[in-house]
């Protein structure tokens, strides 16, 4: 097991391009959730173009569910969980269908580089009525470029009703939307010639299917138009918003009456102060760094933190920026207990396949999210899948930390197996890869920690390991163990 883990780290880190040419997928650990705002959704959907900023509104009562599969493909599908079981079933079915459709497409190419990544943004019309906009990115080894797509869903979380466009607007609304949106877009540069305008008119024909992707947000409705709907691939995706008051004559109930103002979210607690790295009596000791990827998780991470506190040890959490936004209280607790908070990017996309702008967003927005939450910038980063190249190293701005022991907890999802895989291969200076999004990994850690201590190991953070063993923080430097 340790040999395989080290091989994967070496192959991804030092020979990734060669492995990619051989169509060998290097699969490590994954999960994430991405929630976006700031830049337009259309900008985010344009692969290789403008990258988004982190969404930070309308999150009350919404959590993240994640489907992760890491066999011959890289799958990370993130979708919302609400307080309504019927709504949750619809969302779950949508997510699992997305995964099964993707797997059907790759069944004949088991050794190709295939990636599926789906994230969502939340919009809130009222306390009960919420919209979700899903962005999906897929790429297969036989494709020169990945494919982006979008979908939206709007629900009443009190009744469980899902709203289609015909439930929000009635009467001759299709003709109105078709004309108004065409007039809004026709003078944009991408629609100025005759053929482009013809494609635009076709994509906006008064058919409910052409306006199926919409979100409701306080006092407006926004229509989203995905790839190819309004023209060829090189036509940017579009979004057009209307104040609901401008469509009042077409509004159905309950949308004819403005909802009460949304409650203001509570201000986050004051950020913690930076803590010095304590390496006081670590010289000459057997050291092991336990690291946990893809969190925080609202339940599992707290259980793990209970274990770490009880055992009086610390670990390093390579967190996803999108999840930090949802579970900042968990991150603050982890940091205040003395654990290290490190970056695992925002959306857990393979950084080597992204445009410079997208890659920099994945890296920099996570730094911002962590610093906003705990008041401290992360000092190290773990690239998703362990995949990096010279561009990733140049953009990281900090060392890259991989691992030397990989128990493949994501594969086995069995606490006994994970425990055995770690304990039989750990050594002085090991960096152990685990995932606190899996309850079985947290259960295994509860056994691993006291047993490592009984064998004379001292459990430390990555910062403690680097500083004790004479490492440095040169940006782009790669660590597998110390």
Report mean pLDDT, rounded to a whole number: 85
Count of alpha/pi helices = 15
Strand proportion:
15-25%
Number of strands: 18
Most strands sheet = 6 strands, mixed
Q: Taking strands numbered 1, 2, ... along the chain, how are they ordered across the largest sheet?
A: 3-4-5-6-7-8
In total, how many domains does the architecture comprise? Answer: 2
- Provide the structure class: alpha/beta
What does the overall shape look like? elongated
CATH class annotation of the largest domain? Alpha Beta
- From the N-terminal CA to the C-terminal CA, the straight-line distance is 19 Å
Residues in helices, as a percent range:
25-40%
What radius of gyration results from the CA coordinates? 24 Å
- Poorly predicted runs are 1-57
Description:
- Helix content is 34%, strand content 20%.
- Helix 7 packs parallel to helix 14 and helix 13 runs parallel beside helix 14 (439-454).
- It has 15 helices and 18 strands.
- It has 482 residues and is α/β, with parallel strands linked by helices.
- The strands form 5 sheets. It has a 6-stranded mixed β-sheet with strand order 3-4-5-6-7-8.
- The radius of gyration is 24 Å and the shape is elongated.
- It has 2 domains: 31-262, Fervidobacterium nodosum Rt17-B1 like (Heat Shock Protein 90, 2-Layer Sandwich); 286-479, Alpha-Beta Barrel (TIM Barrel), CATH 3.20.20.370.
